[in-house]
């Protein structure tokens, strides 16, 4: 069970994962050692699954962000596993979900330009033997970045 201090720690770390044990202690009214032990426990119990840096896609030359809905023509464990391997092998695909509804998968992609997105669609995704069709949407503007989870 999480108590209010654990929840406060998770919220603080989502805002800034670089907080030291001393800084966390100051925010949560704990000693640095208590804050450090709590953080280690939250990591060990799987509440905190890792730490990453958020990068600016435009500064990296990734001018096109999009979503691709994928509809499979054939469904089965082999097709799903093969599709998952292809998705995991492509750096342009930043995240992927299996979905209910009309589409089987939703892919979030970042590409250098429209030509690179076109290549991803027509040379990688559509030729996959399980894929029947795709529908892509290009992001015009992102109103809100991936936000911290509610705690």
Q: Mean pLDDT score, rounded? A: 96
Order of helices and strands: HHHEHEEHE
Residue share in β-strands: 15-25%
Number of helices: 5
Shape: elongated
Fraction of helical residues: 25-40%
- Uncertain runs are none
**Gyration radius, in Å:** 20 Å
- Total number of β-strand segments? 4
Quick rundown:
The chain is an alpha+beta fold and 151 residues long.
Question: Descriptors for this entry?
Answer:
single chain, 151 residues, alpha+beta, four-stranded antiparallel sheet, 38% helix
Provide the fold topology:
Layout: H1 4-15, H2 21-28, H3 32-44, E1 64-72, H4 77-89, E2 93-98, E3 105-111, H5 114-125, E4 131-138
Antiparallel strand pairs: 1-3, 1-4, 2-3
Helix pairs in contact: 2-3
Give a structural overview.
- It is a single chain.
- With 151 residues, this protein is α+β, with helices and mostly antiparallel strands.
- 38% of the residues lie in helices and 20% in strands.
- The chain is built from five helices and four strands; from the N terminus they run H-H-H-E-H-E-E-H-E.
- It has helices at 4-15, 21-28, 32-44, 77-89, 114-125, and strands at residues 64-72, 93-98, 105-111, 131-138.
- The protein has a four-stranded antiparallel sheet.
- It is elongated.
- The two termini are 13 Å apart.
- The relative contact order is 0.16.
- The model has no long low-confidence stretch (mean pLDDT 96).
